[in-house]
Specification:
mainly alpha; 15 helices; Serine Threonine Protein Phosphatase 5, Tetratricopeptide repeat
């Protein structure tokens, strides 16, 4: 069997000299079998390589499916999969013949493709789930309208309600810096605003502050943390967080946590 897979991998990985690259590219124009395998392996290489996803193709990147894939590839779950694939290939490349390495590459790529397919198609309703579980109407108002002492907090809530999330987070941050006594509900509003902006780490910081507030609202932190992972489509951390809620049936949103877990399993 020809060493097409290893040659292609060396080319894609940049392990060829300039003269070797030129010779390889010339063969691509004349060897139909090589060209066919090159196309396949290039696609697989892009799946578990470090290249930016569909870099330079702005039309593709604007599609909903592309946004879902980009979000998935940035998740911890995708990073773990890529690391495992690269580890398996690295361990086997020097110790097995080219045929076996080729099949390892195919198997690894199939694993990625299956995972992505399951993520996109099985979990395509994550946005709908988030919308159905967020229940903004259940969050009490932050202030009584017109109270001078809470003008900044009132402004932040009005910005939030107008879906001006960037401005809302700025107002909440100013409020948190100026006030000695913080209304814990502001952490919920601010955290949700960060979720809507796609700034998930900052959202988690807000819900950690909520958890540490030692108030009656603190018990809600786990649920809102779960909503971060739901919006992020991070299934692993979502399931872990829901399980912590289900450890005690007196926990906030226990019933909803069980329902959501059943939906994503």
């Amino acid at each position: 069997m020809k060493d097409y897979p290893i040659e292609i991998d060396d080319y894609l990985s940049g392990n060829m000299s300039i003269s070797e690259q030129q010779a390889f590219e010339e063969r691509l124009r004349t060897d139909a079998a090589l060209a066919q395998e090159f196309k396949l392996q290039k696609e697989m290489f892009a799946m578990y390589g470090n290249e930016s996803w569909a870099e330079g193709d702005e039309d593709i990147l604007k599609t909903d499916q592309a946004k879902q894939l980009q979000s998935f590839f940035k998740s911890d779950e995708a990073s773990d999969i890529k690391a495992t694939i690269n580890e398996v290939i690295t361990e086997n490349r020097t110790s097995v013949n080219s045929r076996r390495f080729w099949f390892i590459g195919i198997a690894a790529s199939i694993a990625v493709l299956l995972t992505v397919s399951l993520f996109v198609f099985k979990d395509k309703n994550y946005e709908e789930l988030y919308a159905s579980f967020i229940h903004l109407d259940e969050i009490p108002s932050l202030v009584t309208r017109g109270e001078d002492a809470h003008k900044l907090l009132e402004e932040a809530q009005l910005l939030f309600e107008a879906q001006k999330y960037e401005e809302a987070t700025q107002s909440f941050s100013e409020y948190h810096q100026k006030e000695a006594t913080i209304n814990p509900l502001s952490y919920i509003y601010n955290g949700i605003a960060y979720i809507e902006l796609g700034e998930f780490d900052r959202a988690l910081v807000q819900f950690k502050r909520l958890e540490d507030s030692n108030t009656l609202q603190a018990k809600k932190a786990k649920w809102y943390r779960a909503l971060v992972f739901l919006k992020q489509k991070n299934k692993t951390k979502l399931k872990q967080t829901l399980q912590t809620i289900l450890d005690n049936n007196s926990n906030y949103k226990y019933k909803e946590a069980q329902e959501l877990l059943d939906m994503i399993d």
